[in-house]
Amino acid sequence: MGDRKFYGGSRLTNAGAADTSGALSVEDVRRARAALEGLDVTSWSGRFELLSDANRLRLLLCLHHAPGICVTDLSVALGMSGTAVSHALRLLRSQGWVSATRDGRSMRYQLADDTVHQLLHSIGATHFHDETPTPGHTHS
After folding, report:
1. 38 falls in which pLDDT band (50, 70, 90)?
2. DSSP conformational letter for 132
3. Domains delineated in the chain
4. C-alpha pair distances (Å), 124 with each of 58, 75, 89, 114, 127
5. Cα–Cα distances in Å, from 97 out to 43, 76, 79?
6. Could you tell me how far CA 22 lies from the centroid of its own chain?
7. Residue 64 and residue 54: Cα distance in Å, rounded?
């Protein structure tokens, strides 16, 4: 193809300048390319891939609403096997989305990533508010 190379779908000349030949609006091309500058698209696509699994998303919603829940209770709430829940939690922990705290012989899980927390809110997730607060504790 001569002096042109392809990188992620965009044509670049040997000098590295992005090719705008064939564009109807060079300004629109410039603005569209500017939208990609400074973003780690690969990282974000990986994040959205994790969210694309309905069971993982359901698990994250449960952790959001019931932080500190254990695998056994998560598996009952989700109607999934403990093995499947543990596997999903391992994957989410490896990405830093979930953290665990030992409580005697069991582990308690909670969200650990603020971006994920905000994404869950953007799809309508809410926090649990007990109807009967414990003495000395108020919900805001």
Report:
1. confident
2. S
3. 4-37 (no CATH), 44-122 (1.10.10.10)
4. 13, 22, 22, 16, 10
5. 13, 21, 22
6. 37
7. 15
The residue count for the chain: 140
Q: If you average pLDDT over residues 87-106, what whole number do you get?
A: 95
Q: Does residue 92 have a pLDDT over 50?
A: yes
| pLDDT attached to residue 65 | 93
Helix (H) or strand (E) holding 74: helix 71-78
* C-alpha to C-alpha distance for 13 and 3, rounded to whole angstroms: 6
Q: What is the DSSP string of 18-67?
A: BP-TT-S-HHHHHHHHHTTTT--HHHHHHHHHHHTSHHHHHHHHHHHHST
Chain centroid, CA 122 distance in Å: 12
| Residue 108: how many other CB atoms lie within 10 Å | 16
Q: What single letter denotes the amino acid at residue 21? A: S
Quick one: pLDDT at residue 5? 36
- Cβ atoms of residues 83 and 118 within 8 Å: no
> What confidence category does residue 73 fall into, taking pLDDT thresholds of 50, 70 and 90?
very high
